[in-house]
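Exercise 7.
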Amino acid sequence: MDGAIAADEARNETDWKVGVDIGGTFIDFCALETRTGRLASLKVLTTPEDPGAELMTGLTILAEREGLDPTHMTRFVHGTTVGINTIIQRKGAPLALFTNAGFEDVIELARLRMPDMYSLFCSRPDPLISRDMVFGIPARMRADGNESQAPDMAAVERAVAAAKANGAQGIIVSFLHAWRNAAQEASVRAAIARLAPDLFVFSSAEVWPVIREYERSSTAILNGYVHPRVSGYLTALEERLKARGVPARPMLTKSNGGLMNAAEGKRACVNMLLSGTASGVIGASWLARQAGEDKVLTLDIGGTSADFALIIGGEPQFGTGELIGEFPLHIPSVSVSSIGVGGGSIASVDAQGVLRVGPESAGSTPGPACYGRGGEQATVTDAMVVCGWLGHSEMAYGQLRIDTQLAHRAVGDLAAKLGRPVEQAAQAILGIAVSEMFVEVEKLASRAGVDLRDFTLMPFGGGGPMLGAFLARELGMTRVLAPRRPGVVSALGGLVADLRGDFIRTIFSPLSGASLPAIRETFEALAREGRDWLAAQGHDAAAELNLSCDMRYVGQSYEIEVVLSPDWLSGGNVAAIEQAFHLTHERLYDFHDPDGEIELVNVRLSVVGAGPALSFPEIDEIEVPVVPARRLPVYTGLGVETVDLHDRQSLVPGSTFHGPAVVVQEDTTFAIPAGAQARVDRHLNLLLTFAE
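Solution. The predicted structure, written as tokens, is:
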């Protein structure tokens, strides 16, 4: 009896914190039992036909294998690709746009830029709202916030009727100068809700109240376009978790690398469009700080894409204007560059006989040919199998077994078209994949003005360790750091992420002593809004407030974000603000004008509520001989070589060995080329170094 009571008490003390990330091929789980510090991880194939079902499957497996008790889950953080996939696949809600009469072409005109100005065949993407679904409403708000023409409510009523007749499920309201005064948008929105309560409505100032009507309109359109699918998905998620007895309030990872609750996510959908990619960078940043790495290039390769980001000073970089499919997103987000090359990217030969890789992907269904799930086309994963780097152990925590014959058959069909041996064709696929990633990374480095030779590459995701070392070698990088569980870094990001809310107001005024009271007042209003937001998320601890302003020289078309100290506002220190702008401008453009007149456009506030303080144990390094599990033949491009195969579980801190080698583990396979020295550090990271 006493033993049973002790067991019940131990179970009652159990505290599970779970991070989940859904990608194109797998859903990843990272579960921490805080009482013991035990970390459990898992990958489960996604179910595109029933998004969310794989989540329940994973929780069941974790309960069976790891003893996870859903009723003792105190933190559940979820990242999903439902929103971004809705945009990429163009499966969003039919929308109507209500704007000022005479400005119906706002989303057609955009910024009058072509995606590729040097291509004769370049064309702009079709807008998410067709021209016949844009309705001009006679109304006008002046730039100073005074109304010169009230909205014509009869025109609103006619537009609502036409929008419904044309099949609209929702309406976006975006009027001129709503950033200054949103009263007209609010009145039209209220009228639509009264006339058509079955339609959802979003106004541009509600979503992101900034100057520039195109950016404001496009951000609101993206929010409305994904709203029904995201809201439906999150509602089903809450119901499924409740049915499993999960007490934790579900949280979502955001594009800015922070968190928000699921209830807010149903309306602020645009904030979670890049949640998966941002979560991966947050997880990688946390791991980089733990390992003492100051400058890191992250490489997240999943089934459909490769994502790159820079971590400087242990912190991710942020920006606006990230592309969601073919459309820019004008809210703060973790800066991530992506390319359509992943483990499931399909290789093909075009009409000119040229070998191409991606962007089409086999996804999880049917997946690469070697998965044995019906795929017949050669993919990057199949090429890794044919070369011998992959296929020597179960994959994805036993979810998959590699069929080498199916991989050889798929790549062999491609090799026959190229007139090459199958191994050479497979090596060519890998070479193209690496070269396409090389081009994208070089562009990222050029934009950021950094020398990648000063950085450490951190590959993660299911495919990152497969190709990461080869990419690092091509880039001239001398260090590669693979975490203990690379396949679930994005899920880990949810575990360690903070609550983070971004707030903005456009004030548009010259920077001077006379303008400081308005800036102070705006900052204080945003601070109140930020603290209220944290309280709504259930956070009652201390908050961190980060102030910045978008500023420019008078006459410039675009502004730069400058980090400011609130003390400069309270103390009236205009000189410090001017100096901060000059220094930022100098750093970005290598020039500044000390006599130039400065204009302030936006005041920004980022409010942060710290997440749980987690840490993983460190283990002292010891010198032990490393004995490979076995040796195997691998085609390296120069011929077949016999290389060592190591089991990651058998490697302890202090273990060292040389490439070429293969390291297998439950969530990925690490391919290590010749010339690399490998060592396991105190955090169980696998560190590769190349001679310069």
